[in-house]
């Protein structure tokens, strides 16, 4: 390695470390470009190492930390880009914001030669779909996320539930209620609640909205048999003994403790069926006993309607290049490196953030770090999963759905889908405010 490259890597690492500890950004000892990469808080140490590895003799990558919530991340980036900030070179984007940012002209479209590298045949379909807008590629998939059913094997066995076969929401709610267990979901009024609703609507063969490239004129579809099927699941859990005490404010972290409760005689003491993201495996591997961990099972996302394939949620992070960056060509070169198989493997092994690239699942590192059957479940769920609506107005769509469907304890299949359809139509048409 050349001395210049060694210096560039050292500079990038020090800058990344400074940013992650809240210190002021450091400069370079040369005039070469400094690319600012705005990251979300997941996997910070691994992302710092990726920034170091992908810095070159031509540029350094400096990390800037975004807020924890996806909504706050969007707000900070949107303010910078709306102001045509030239220092926003690279950004980690929740997939649902790619369409909005691309439509606003805030993301640089990847030219064909770069697009063919970041979205090739190795990228799983569910992840690849998140980075396109109007036939263009506007970001590079860095890691993908999906939800599965995490459960206690002992609870499923007591219920006589064969988790090797597709299961329905009805089945897991009944199994938990009849066997001193619970069902963990994300039902607080925030983005993950929309994720739950959307996945169930897709699993019933419907959509929240369609023809989303029409913008505000998109077709609102949630008042449908599929919308009512999703509402029936929520209403059933809300009135079930399987409902967790914090159901109406539940999030990704709150239900983790109910899988292996300290007091087995407490309500829900038999454990739970929990719908949650890929991070769960590493969380429990590092925090529970070997006996408890051996009782952890996993299965594909539940069917909304028996016999209809489920559509597991798709999440993750895509890397976009700011349209006002003074170094767009260099930023795209960096994005290719930051989303390669090596980067995606490291994020999966270190942080439980699953690859968007299929070949990474076959790496020796992942095969050693995870149960092979779980890797295959993740891979298939991402490949066959269902996206949230791809719309420049996604934030309004999601907020409008949440406002009517929350509280989940008040969801009524006969009323809620119709009311949310009318409200969403009015929001898109500008007749009502969120």
TrEMBL record:
What is this protein's name? Extracellular solute-binding protein
Keyword annotations of the record: Signal, Transport
Q: Which InterPro entries match?
A: SBP
Q: Where is the signal peptide?
A: 1-24
Q: Which PANTHER family match?
A: MALTOSE-BINDING PERIPLASMIC PROTEIN, MALTOSE_MALTODEXTRIN-BINDING PERIPLASMIC PROTEIN
Q: Which organism is it from?
A: Ornithinimicrobium faecis
Family in the record: Belongs to the bacterial solute-binding protein 1 family.
The answer to keyword Signal applying to this record is yes
User: Would you say which domain of life the source belongs to?
Assistant: Bacteria
